[in-house]
Amino acid sequence: EAGVAQSPRYKIIEKRQSVAFWCNPISGHATLYWYQQILGQGPKLLIQFQNNGVVDDSQLPKDRFSAERLKGVDSTLKIQPAKLEDSAVYLCASSLQAGGRHNEQFFGPGTRLTVL
Amino acid sequence: AQSVAQPEDQVNVAEGNPLTVKCTYSVSGNPYLFWYVQYPNRGLQFLLKYITGDNLVKGSYGFEAEFNKSQTSFHLKKPSALVSDSALYFCAVRASYGDSWGKLQFGAGTQVVVTP
Q1: 3-state class of B61 per DSSP?
Q2: Which of B88, B90, B67, B63 is nearest to B78 (CA)?
Q3: pLDDT tens profile B4-46
Q4: Distance from CA of B67 to the nearest CA of A (A)
Q5: Binary contact (A41, B109; C-beta < 8 A)
Q6: pLDDT digits over B90-112, tens only?
Q7: How far, in Å, CA of B33 to CA of B65, rounded?
Q8: What is the chain A residue with the closest CA to B105?
Q9: Which residue of A has its CA nearest to B47?
Q10: Do A42 and B90 touch (CB under 8 A)?
């Protein structure tokens, strides 16, 4: 079974530039998550999709971050404009369903973003 | 609100010795508890989970964890550590109902270093 795919793996940009990350979840997984992992910290949920609808985006900085999952499969996370504090690893995860007892999340390899 | 504490930034252990990584949590109602491991430049890999039932949960790579409701703990253990177990370990909690249902809260992580 193929895992969660993410691209690019690494990205270096200057502050105020734009950047986009792509994620393709495990086939059949209805729920998709984007996390931000700052060095030395645990992952923090940015946004959660159930199919193509947003379930939780309470911690997404909406003035600069946006995400979409138009067809309920792959997803794109965008930052525009980037700030120095956005330097982090952006992890995508997917699960069969949002809640319930058996919704362990499977993570992609992440995209390491460096903002100069 | 739910939270997870991993009191040790780093755990050092000699190969062949027992390994314990500590985790305590706070959540409304019954918790769903998870352990993930992260190797350098890799995403998080699921190790094990506690949903209900037996307090001792067995997972991948010889790891196990013990759920202790009175102490609100979910410590990760391995009887005999390997050098290849050196990695970053994350504990996570999810509420089984309420506003945080489905939302995974991670601890800050514990770096495990196993020396030959």
Answers
A1: helix
A2: B63
A3: 999 999 999 999 999 999 999 998 888 899 999 999 878 899 9
A4: 16
A5: yes
A6: 999 987 766 556 678 999 999 99
A7: 10
A8: A44
A9: A104
A10: yes
* Chain A: closest CA distance from residue B30 (Å): 12
Residues whose CB falls within 8 Å of the CB of residue A63, separated by 6 or more in sequence, listed in order = none
Task: Confirm if B32 and B50 have CB atoms less than 8 A apart.
Answer: yes
Distances (CA, A) of A82 to A37, A42, B76, B100: 16, 21, 37, 29
Of the candidates B94, B88, B42, B36, which has an alpha carbon nearest to the alpha carbon of residue B63? Answer: B36
**What is the rounded distance in angstroms from the CA atom of residue B102 to the CA atom of residue B19?**
30
Chain B partners within 8 Å of A112 (Cβ):
41
User: How far is Cα of residue A53 from the mean position of the Cα atoms in its chain?
Assistant: 15
Q: Which amino acid is at A41?
A: Q
Element (H, E) at B53: none
Kindly determine whether residue A109 and residue B42, on different chains, have CB atoms separated by under 8 Å.
Answer: yes
> Which residue, chain included where needed, has tokens 């058996």?
A102
Substitution target from A11, A37, A55, A104 for chain B, most B beta carbons within 10 A: A104
Collapsing DSSP to helix, strand or coil, B83 comes out as helix
Report CB contact under 8 Å: A101, B52: yes
Measured in angstroms, the CA of A28 and the nearest CA of chain B are apart by: 18
Q: Which amino acid is at A43?
A: P
A113: helix, coil or strand?
A: strand
SS3 B37: strand
